[in-house]
């Protein structure tokens, strides 16, 4: 038999071409008709040009006994998932720090379902990411398990696959970002939910089962668009960031990945004297803490996670002099800054994320304490708020706390690492005020008899106000600093500089480490 390398190469090129959009035009046209991109278009937008090295490109669905091989090559190209390694943000972070593993589901192949060879490809790339210690970015659109792979005769239920284990086992080892657009059900939703950071477009529906499985379980008949719509999944914390479309989601993923890739050389910041005007003179008035965040952070560097969930605490990433930092901040526009059960759980998981990937943490504190009462307790407040303390106690990275205004009770302690001695540095703005509980509540509780003894309502109110004023004087920031309960009172305009000094003073020194793992929320 003759051996002609040119013939072999031509045959190979023909096989490879069948995995490309230029040949799979019908599939590409369907995607475009819905306003969506193809898997390879998402891949091209995500990774640096010519950096992708594909794994398993010639795989097809395990259905050769029910479909012609030539047909399988086009209709089930790559068995519905693109996997490989690439670089992302190489121009900013260089070749070594920009290495990533990439997984892109192809909904045009059997609705993005997970088949036999498909899972083998996932296992290969997930294990490789762990061995190489590189982040993973994954597009998760798809309908879950695939029942039609009839070529597979070596398993019954197909539950001995490893993909979900290998993916979950990367928790705390390498950063994992999941992006979804379109339908994401069953196994695909599990992969999405296991990620460290989840991004979904407004055209996303995410659920633990698709219509067929729900109906098969006797739970009713639903359209795909009735299952896990984005407005629901944003409010319940399943989605960290909602993007407009696939292009927006991809850009957000690249920016988020950068926080784990390291510092940047070029940065700028706003006029820091603007911080002096953030907190209003009237201590009862609310304000937008985002204004403080945007001024303290490098310009255009702050990105918020879970803005629609647990709104009492803001969580997100920012840069200070180009260095990535995790941020938690009380939001006095929600429940006057009280820390409720949802916010506690949201903050707990974010702290684990920062600690796992060695990002220092800045806490901007302004809270009257934990949200209490029967309604709060009905939300498992005791367990969820306590988890805030557990998470902060296990943090090994530097914590810096700046009290902008109120620092009261257990809520303030939770915001500052479990207690005011936990941060490497804790300071307050001159507007800071401290106490075991909110001033008004302390007066009502501690001076109940005196207040009740005053019959005239106007006089009672005057007495109440005077007692609050006295307690404010006792608990103001300068007094707390004088009694060494905090380290300093600072000019707000110096906040950024002081935070950087505190982080730099800690250097690479960390508290004793335990094995790190990011746990999903339990509620």
Tell me what the structure shows:
With 523 residues, the protein is of the alpha/beta class. The chain has 3 domains: 5-260, 2-enoyl-CoA Hydratase, Chain A, domain 1; 266-432 and 476-506, Alpha-Beta Complex (2-enoyl-CoA Hydratase, Chain A, domain 1), CATH 3.90.226.10; 438-475, no CATH class. Helices cover 39% and strands 17% of the residues. The protein contains 21 helices and 15 strands. The strands form 2 sheets. Strands 8, 9, 10, 11, 12, 13, 14 and 15 form an 8-stranded mixed sheet that branches. Strand 12, helix 16 and strand 13 form a beta-alpha-beta unit.
List the helices and strands and how they pair.
Elements: H1 5-17, H2 25-33, H3 39-46, E1 53-55, H4 69-75, E2 81-87, H5 90-97, E3 99-105, H6 116-132, E4 136-139, H7 163-168, E5 176-185, H8 187-194, E6 197-207, H9 211-216, H10 230-235, E7 241-243, H11 246-261, H12 289-296, E8 303-305, E9 313-320, E10 323-330, H13 341-356, E11 361-367, H14 374-377, H15 381-393, E12 399-408, H16 409-415, E13 425-428, E14 433-435, H17 439-446, H18 448-453, H19 457-475, H20 477-482, E15 488-489, H21 495-506
Parallel strand pairs: 3-4, 4-5, 5-6, 6-7, 10-11, 11-12, 12-13, 12-14, 13-15
Antiparallel strand pairs: 1-2, 2-3, 8-9, 9-10
Helix pairs in contact: 13-15, 17-19
Distance between the termini: 66 Å
The CATH top-level class label of the largest domain: Alpha Beta
**How many strand elements?**
15
- State the share of residues found in helices, binned by percent: 25-40%
CATH architecture tag of the largest domain: Alpha-Beta Complex
> What's the mean pLDDT score?
92
Structural category is alpha/beta
Q: What percent of residues are in strands? A: 15-25%
- Oligomerization state of this entry? single chain
Q: Residue ranges: pLDDT <50 for 5 or more in a row?
A: none
Query: What is the CATH superfamily of the largest domain?
Result: 2-enoyl-CoA Hydratase, Chain A, domain 1
User: Would you tell me which CATH topology of the largest domain applies?
Assistant: 2-enoyl-CoA Hydratase, Chain A, domain 1
What's the overall geometry?
A: elongated
What about the largest sheet?
Answer: 8 strands, mixed
Total count of helical runs of at least 4 residues: 21
Whole-number total of structural domains: 3
> What's the Cα radius of gyration?
27 Å
């Amino acid at each position: 038999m003759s051996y002609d390398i040119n013939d072999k190469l031509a045959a190979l090129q023909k096989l490879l071409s069948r995995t490309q959009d230029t040949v799979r035009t019908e599939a590409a046209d369907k995607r475009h008709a819905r306003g969506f991109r193809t898997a390879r278009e998402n891949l091209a937008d995500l990774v640096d040009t010519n950096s992708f090295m594909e794994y398993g490109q010639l795989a097809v669905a395990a259905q050769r006994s029910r479909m012609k091989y030539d047909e399988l090559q086009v209709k089930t190209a790559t068995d519905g998932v693109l996997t490989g390694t690439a670089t992302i943000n190489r121009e900013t972070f260089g070749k070594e720090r920009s290495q990533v593993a990439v997984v892109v589901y192809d909904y045009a192949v059997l609705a993005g379902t997970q088949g036999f060879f498909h899972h083998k490809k996932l296992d290969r790339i997930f294990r490789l990411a762990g061995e190489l210690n590189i982040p993973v970015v994954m597009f998760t659109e798809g309908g879950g398990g695939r029942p039609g792979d009839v070529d597979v005769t070596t398993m019954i239920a197909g539950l001995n696959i490893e993909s979900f284990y290998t993916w979950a086992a990367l928790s705390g080892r390498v950063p994992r970002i999941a992006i979804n657009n379109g339908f994401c059900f069953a196994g695909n939703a599990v992969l999405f939910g296991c990620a460290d950071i989840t991004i979904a477009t407004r055209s996303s529906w995410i659920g633990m089962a698709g219509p067929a499985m729900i109906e098969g379980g006797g739970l009713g008949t639903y359209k795909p668009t009735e299952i896990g719509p984005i407005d629901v999944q944003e409010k319940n914390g399943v989605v960290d960031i909602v993007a407009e479309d696939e292009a927006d989601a991809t850009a957000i993923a690249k920016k988020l990945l950068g926080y784990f890739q390291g510092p940047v050389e070029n940065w700028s910041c706003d006029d820091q004297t603007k911080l002096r005007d953030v907190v209003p003179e009237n201590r009862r008035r609310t304000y937008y803490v985002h204004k403080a965040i945007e001024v303290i952070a490098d310009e255009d560097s702050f990105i918020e996670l879970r803005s629609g969930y647990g709104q009492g605490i803001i969580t997100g990433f920012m840069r200070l002099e180009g260095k990535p930092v995790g941020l938690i901040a009380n939001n006095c526009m929600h429940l006057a800054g009280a820390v409720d059960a949802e916010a506690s759980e949201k903050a707990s998981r974010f702290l684990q994320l920062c600690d796992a990937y060695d990002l220092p943490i800045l806490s901007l504190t302004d809270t009257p304490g934990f949200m209490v009462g029967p309604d709060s307790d009905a939300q498992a407040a005791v367990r969820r708020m306590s988890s805030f303390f557990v998470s902060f106690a296990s943090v090994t990275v530097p914590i810096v706390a700046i009290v902008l205004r109120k620092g009261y009770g257990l809520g303030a302690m939770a915001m500052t690492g479990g207690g005011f001695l936990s941060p490497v540095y804790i300071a307050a703005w001159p507007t800071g005020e401290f106490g075991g509980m909110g001033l008004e509540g302390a007066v009502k509780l501690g001076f109940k008899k005196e207040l009740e003894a005053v019959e005239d309502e106007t006089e009672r109110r005057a007495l109440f106000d005077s007692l609050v004023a006295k307690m404010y004087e006792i608990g103001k920031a300068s007094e707390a600093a004088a009694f060494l309960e905090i380290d300093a009172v600072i000019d707000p305009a110096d906040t950024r500089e002081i935070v950087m000094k505190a982080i730099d003073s800690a250097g690479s020194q960390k508290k004793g480490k335990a094995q790190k793992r990011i746990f999903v929320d339990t509620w």
